[in-house]
């Protein structure tokens, strides 16, 4: 069982345009889709499609359209009563793959809801293999909550993955190593926030094939207690850093239809392989394969195993410091 926590869930409405978005213009749409959203829910949906047992924990009232959407997709969940309906997020998708997102902040989480949500996720995590804490926090939840949850879960026997940003991410970093998760999934900006590295240098280096700064930043987090750092780098692929070494994954460029949910799909792909007992390099291979499959899909559509091709992902393993790459793992047949 993998448990996911989505503290700030949403209904994600994607509006597809037949041309370029222009401020102040009247635009024609080619279609609209509505999906249950929030990073933890996205991860759970991908894992469920891959055949894994999942349980999504979230705040939502009985009768909320979000829960109806989860029921329609047969996604198991535990919902804690809260102060209002799930927020609505809007994604505007252009034909060239450019996406513009309008995200509501979410309703304020009361002290009662926070207490019940805290209890619900800890209860669900007992006996689980992984607890995945994802996304932004709504008003009313302190920035330190993810850090507090990671600390509380240390005695439960499950491993913990975290994918968040901004203030909750910085609060997690401030409490390392006490709050160190088993897996963290930053993008280049978030990796810079966590380590004090220069985000521009990380992005420019990765785009030019110099992965040293990314690996160095990942090693900083591993030295501070984080089990594994899965750094997603957009078109430059992804890097995995653990105490055992570092790996880079790259793939041929896919036609980008939407980047929404790509990072969530990457995290899910990593967990799919990890649950199957794969080694770190293969876990990274699946992470990038799932992320690549996600960007080729429209709107907030998420990939299933039938659209994922791990054999298209090339893995390079670095023995110590990437000067030069020491070994390239073979692709699956």
From TrEMBL:
The species this protein was found in: Rhodococcus coprophilus
Gene3D superfamilies listed in its UniProt record: 3.40.1190.20
Key words of the record: ATP-binding, Kinase, Nucleotide-binding, Transferase
Pfam family name, one: PfkB
Keyword Cell inner membrane tagged: no
Single GO term (MF): 1-phosphofructokinase activity
Top class in the EC scheme: transferase
Gene Ontology cellular component terms for the protein in this record: cytosol
Lineage of the species this protein comes from: Bacteria, Bacillati, Actinomycetota, Actinomycetes, Mycobacteriales
Keyword DNA repair applies: no
Family recorded in the similarity comment: Belongs to the carbohydrate kinase PfkB family.
Enzyme Commission code: 2.7.1.11, 2.7.1.56
The protein's name in its UniProt record: 1-phosphofructokinase
Residue ranges of domain Carbohydrate kinase PfkB in the record: 23-303
């Amino acid at each position: 069982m993998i448990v996911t926590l989505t503290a700030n869930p949403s209904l994600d409405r994607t509006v597809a345009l037949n041309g370029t978005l222009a401020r102040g213009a009247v635009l024609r749409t080619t279609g609209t889709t509505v999906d249950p959203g929030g990073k933890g829910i996205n991860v759970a949906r991908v894992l469920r499609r891959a055949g894994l047992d999942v349980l999504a924990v979230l705040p939502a009232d009985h009768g909320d359209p979000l829960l109806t959407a989860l029921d329609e997709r047969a996604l198991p969940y535990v919902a804690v009563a809260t102060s209002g309906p799930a927020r609505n997020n809007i994604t505007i998708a252009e034909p060239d793959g450019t996406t513009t997102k309008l995200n509501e902040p979410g309703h304020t989480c009361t002290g009662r809801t926070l207490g019940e949500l805290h209890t619900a996720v800890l209860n669900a995590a007992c006996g689980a293999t992984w607890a995945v804490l994802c996304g932004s926090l709504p008003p009313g939840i302190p920035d330190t909550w993810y850090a507090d949850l990671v600390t509380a879960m240390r005695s439960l026997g499950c491993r913990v993955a975290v994918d968040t940003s901004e203030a909750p991410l910085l609060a997690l970093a401030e409490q390392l190593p006490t709050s160190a998760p088993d897996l963290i999934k930053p993008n280049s900006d978030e990796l810079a926030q966590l380590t004090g590295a220069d985000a521009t240098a990380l992005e420019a280096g990765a785009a030019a094939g110099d992965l040293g700064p990314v690996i160095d930043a990942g090693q900083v987090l591993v030295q501070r207690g984080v089990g594994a750092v899965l750094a997603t780098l957009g078109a430059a692929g992804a890097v995995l850093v653990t105490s055992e070494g570092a790996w880079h994954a790259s793939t041929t460029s896919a036609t980008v239809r939407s980047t929404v949910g790509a990072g969530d799909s990457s995290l899910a792909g990593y967990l799919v392989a990890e649950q199957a007992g794969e080694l770190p390099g293969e876990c990274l291979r699946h992470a990038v394969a799932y992320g690549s499959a996600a960007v080729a899909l429209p709107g907030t559509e998420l990939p299933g195993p039938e659209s994922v091709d791990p054999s298209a992902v090339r893995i390079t393993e670095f023995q110590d410091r990437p000067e030069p790459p020491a070994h390239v793992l073979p692709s699956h047949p």
